[in-house]
Design a protein that fits this description.
300 residues; alpha+beta; Double-stranded beta-helix; 8 helices; 16 strands; 25% strand; binds succinic acid
């Protein structure tokens, strides 16, 4: 299906000339912009923070190049946008528990985030956004994809939208972070170094299938293949075909941008309206990132 004629987000909301403290260069017609004129290592004026926030709302994911951020500075930048999440399962850096390291070594095969998802949706107040800073990147490969979930919602068939409108889906950390989850399987006996068992957070939580963004008022699709385990009121087997259909639709190329990392690049995405995917195409090479996650509010 070609959905281009139905786009009413992106360009319509973007007025790149009206920023006075930052430069905004859209990456595609529907999602993503590179921001210039910002040194994240220096103290950020309120007006700059407000413009970055506006650029995030308009573009859903924003990127910065050539930054130098210590873990403490990354944490402090994150705090300008809200309270930071301390990951329930992934151990943070000893000196900065809010910062998690996302590392794939030359010998590892599986990467972190290598499936389409939105972060931490098993939380009752899932994140507003995540900020990811690249320290070491492969010579080629290791890009990250981002998909616009407003468009995913707006371009669903009317029938499917009506069927699911007002309904909820059940989310859980178990498929990834449970003892049988993919994270534990990846780390095997070394899981103790990276994974902190946390039974309290393996409970199930319901969120609307279509959530309303608390700042833009737009509706977006809010299910993902990592943490959504079924539709509320349906069994997993009954839910699966519907969820599979939604996942395929959610990540159509028309809704996506792809970011090529360099050391010092930063991505800040809006978890309320975006899914992302860390491409695992760099066998034998090392990739190391630091991430902070900004808490959000309860989806409605
Ligand atoms: C993540 O899912 O937060 C990781 C994304 C990436 O490493 O590109």
């Amino acid at each position: 299906m070609n959905v281009a004629y139905r786009h009413d987000v992106g360009n319509a909301l973007r007025d790149v000339g009206s920023y006075s403290h930052i430069e905004v260069s859209p990456l595609t017609g529907t999602i993503g912009a590179v921001l210039g004129g910002v040194d994240l290592a220096a103290p950020l004026d309120d007006v700059v923070v407000a413009e970055i926030r506006r650029a995030l709302l308009e573009n859903l994911v924003v990127f910065f190049r050539d930054q130098t951020l210590t873990p403490e500075r990354l944490r402090d930048v994150g705090r300008r946008f809200g309270e930071l999440h301390v990951h329930e399962f992934v151990k943070g850096l000893p000196e900065c528990p809010e910062v998690i390291e996302i590392l794939k070594t030359e010998d590892e095969r599986v990467n972190f985030g290598g499936t389409w998802h939105s972060d931490v949706t098993y939380h009752d107040t899932p994140p507003l956004g995540s900020i990811l800073y690249a320290l070491e990147v492969p010579e080629a490969g290791g890009d990250t994809l981002f998909a616009n979930q407003y468009l995913a919602y707006e371009t669903l068939s009317e029938g499917l939208r009506e069927m699911l409108e007002g309904r909820k889906a059940v989310h859980s950390a178990a498929p990834i972070y449970g003892t049988q989850g993919s994270f534990a399987a990846r780390y095997g006996e070394d899981a103790g170094t990276a994974l902190q068992p946390n039974e309290d957070h393996l409970r199930e939580i319901e969120h609307p299938i279509f959530r309303t963004h608390p700042e833009t008022g737009r509706k977006g699709l809010y299910v993902n293949g990592n943490f959504t385990i079924r539709l509320a009121g349906l069994s997993e087997a009954e839910s699966r075909p519907i969820l599979e259909r939604l996942y395929v639709h959610a990540t159509m190329p028309d809704f996506c941008c792809r970011f090529r990392w360099r050391p010092g690049s930063v991505a800040f995405w809006d978890n309320r309206a975006v899914q992302h995917y860390a491409v695992n195409d760099y066998p034998g090479q090392r990739r190391r990132m630091h991430r902070v996650t900004v808490l959000g509010d309860r989806p409605y």
